[in-house]
Design goal:
heterodimer; A: alpha/beta; Rossmann fold; 2 domains; four-stranded parallel sheet; about 10% strand; B: mainly alpha; Fumarate Reductase Iron-sulfur Protein, Chain B, domain 2; globular
Chain lengths: ~400, ~230
């Protein structure tokens, strides 16, 4: 079945209805901020405040969340930096182009959540210890942590819940922090980088140099972004009528591209943590049959945009096997950060590093008006200079030359 | 043989009960398990339920009824099918079957259940990577024999890996064996967290050989940094 004009369900993002659904305060989970600051007053920890300037956004139950614009300490993602480094590069590039000060630290460990969800060779205290170690490291620099990975983000929200509500766990972690010579610090908000992209989307659009009006997008929201600690995720009444998280979709709308809906929007990508490594038939089957093929059949998008490491990896890499089986696959996948960077004129290889991606992205680049052959030739020249010792590394100055 | 025959008759009931008590004693248990009225919303949302004989509803139900025999069976046969996406957190009773499974898995690992060791076969390289380097995923893991179903593009990446890594503008990304450059002091702090929280003991239960290697690596680094081991 292929999508045809007239029945492509792309209007979901603009849903508005005479029927109002408002999440009532009495059904909302408690607002964690109250307890967070109570514990600070009791001397249990330091709450690192969101630095100014910040933007306030609405979360699921109409509460406000502060998103800092700059002075961000970038808590990196293993899978992004390791396998799809254009993702993290694009996040840094956006910060640089919008003139926001940031820090890319070496004093940062993995959140270790991939290992945790995959193998359970860890426990609540160890996971909380890792989180608090990283938060303390950020606090020591004066910069505010912003989380690159959806899994890290969801996991740190979970960890915050556990530390807020269990004194014995908190005290166990405090003792460990003392042994490391580190303070107990909890950030005022746990912020995902895609929430930062959300609040600067109009600035990105103001700096847009490529026309995306002919680009159609299927959005995949990351499970660990909005399903874990559900009340702490961005919702906006102007995006899907406030019925789905606005993060990612609002950016696409701001860039003038077309958001196309599909029936398995809420489904996981199939990453599985352990499955993508040792039960791979599950991951590639789910990604193909429940996500990519459905997107292609129903919405036929030019690109799939998502905001998590595992999701980009799973949806991009799984399509090779789908193609071998003759399924309706073959749509490029990238992060919102890479998509935003391309909108602002970023080099597809020097910045977005698309050569690390699997599914063919060249038709998309052509539709964006990018001469990808010339761009690849430029990048090959860069590689020649690195190979012959003229330069040791590609630098930020090189990518904007 | 009845429909609900005990699949593990050789394991004493007292042992199965002990493991269940350990699950209930976990600090997170009260917030993952309330009651289950079998609506099946979790199953509808669950990706693993589409491909495996797996049901988050049955796991929440067994926990709600405290069916010790069934819980032990699930701890061995079912919990490793969960993809930990937490789609099941849409439970109208605010249960988290995925969260309950996390605890069941941890208890299985901590107690050295054979099924846990089998489930984690082939996974030890990841544990070694995170423990040894401070990042879980590194560029040098992108090898064709590790990801054959990702197609020939993996071969292209692995052929030019070192060069492509130098063609990354972020200074911290000029690495091959780690996701990003991590300070030695930072890795040591991670070691200490895992030491002090009993995680090393859990690894010993799962893979003794890996535990020995990690211990040696870690002890050497800790001693160099002046910590007592």
């Amino acid at each position: 079945m292929t999508a045809t004009a007239g029945i492509i369900p792309y209007d979901a993002v603009n849903t508005s209805s005479s029927r109002k659904f408002e999440r009532m305060a009495e059904y909302a989970p408690e607002d964690f901020h109250k307890h967070l600051f109570e514990l600070e007053a009791e001397g249990e920890w330091i709450v690192q405040r969101v630095p100014e300037p910040y933007v306030e956004v609405m979360t699921k139950y109409g509460r406000k969340k502060k998103i800092p614009l700059e002075l961000s300490w970038h808590h990196k993602s293993c899978g992004q930096c390791g396998h799809i480094p254009g993702y993290s590069t694009a996040i840094f590039w956006l910060n640089r182009k919008l003139n926001f000060k940031y820090l890319d630290p070496t004093d940062q460990t993995s959140c270790t959540a991939w290992n945790y969800y995959a193998s359970a060779t860890s426990n609540a205290a160890a996971q909380a210890g890792v989180a608090m170690r990283n938060f303390a490291a950020a606090y020591e620099t004066g910069y505010y942590p912003i989380i690159h990975c959806g899994t890290s983000y969801g996991h740190y929200k979970e960890t915050r819940e556990e530390l807020l509500h269990h004194a014995e766990l908190r005290h166990q972690v405090r003792d460990i922090m003392r042994k490391l010579g580190k303070a107990m610090v909890m950030p005022e908000e746990i912020v995902h980088y895609s929430e930062w992209v959300h609040v600067v989307r109009d600035r990105i659009a103001a700096n847009q140099t490529r026309d995306f009006s002919q680009i159609s997008v299927a959005v995949h929201p990351a499970c660990h972004y909005y399903k874990l600690v559900q009340e702490d995720a961005i919702y906006d009444p102007d995006i899907y009528g406030g019925q789905r998280t606005a993060t990612v979709s609002a950016l696409i709308v701001a860039l003038g591209a077309q958001v196309r809906d599909y029936s398995t929007w809420f489904d996981c990508c199939g990453f599985g943590f352990r499955h993508i490594l040792v039960q791979r038939d599950f991951t590639r089957s789910f990604a193909t049959l429940r996500k990519i093929q459905v997107m292609k059949d129903e919405a036929d998008p030019d690109v799939v945009i998502t905001h998590d490491t595992g999701c980009v990896t799973t949806l991009d890499k799984s399509q090779f096997v789908g193609k071998a089986h003759g399924f309706n696959v073959g749509v490029p996948v990238m992060s919102d950060a890479q998509f935003a960077a391309l909108a602002m004129g970023a080099h597809p290889y020097r910045v977005c590093q698309l050569h690390w991606h699997s599914t063919d992205y060249r038709p998309l680049l052509e539709k964006m008006g990018i001469d990808h052959e010339r761009a690849w030739a430029e990048f090959q020249d860069d590689l020649k200079r690195l190979k012959n010792g003229e330069k040791e590394y590609l630098t930020w100055e090189d990518v904007d030359a | 043989m009845g429909l609900f025959a005990d699949k593990y008759p050789d394991v004493p009931y007292e042992e199965k009960l002990r493991l269940w008590e350990e699950v209930k004693a976990d600090v997170r248990f009260p917030s993952v398990q309330y009651g289950c009225y079998e609506c099946g919303i979790c199953v509808a949302a669950c990706p693993s339920a589409r491909f495996y004989d797996f049901s988050p509803r049955k796991i929440a139900q067994a926990a709600g009824r405290e069916d010790v025999e069934l819980i032990y069976e699930q701890m061995n046969d079912d919990v490793w099918n969960c993809s930990q996406c937490f789609s099941c957190n849409r439970c109208p009773r605010q249960n988290s079957p995925g969260g309950l499974i996390t605890i069941l898995r941890e208890v299985a690992v901590k107690n050295g259940l054979k099924s846990a060791k089998q489930a984690l076969e082939g996974y030890s390289r990841i544990i070694y990577k995170i423990m040894g380097t401070g990042t879980q995923v590194s560029p040098d893991m992108l090898q064709p024999d590790a990801f054959p179903d990702w197609g020939p593009q993996v071969r292209e990446v692995s052929a030019d890996l070192e060069l492509w890594r130098r063609a990354l503008p972020p200074e911290t990304h000029h690495t091959v064996s780690t996701g990003w450059q991590v300070d030695d002091k930072t890795v040591i702090e991670l070691y200490l967290i895992w030491h002090h929280t009993g995680v090393m003991d859990m690894i010993a239960e799962v893979d003794e050989g890996l535990h020995m290697i990690l211990n040696d690596v870690m002890e050497e680094k800790l001693e160099e940094a002046g910590y007592e081991t």
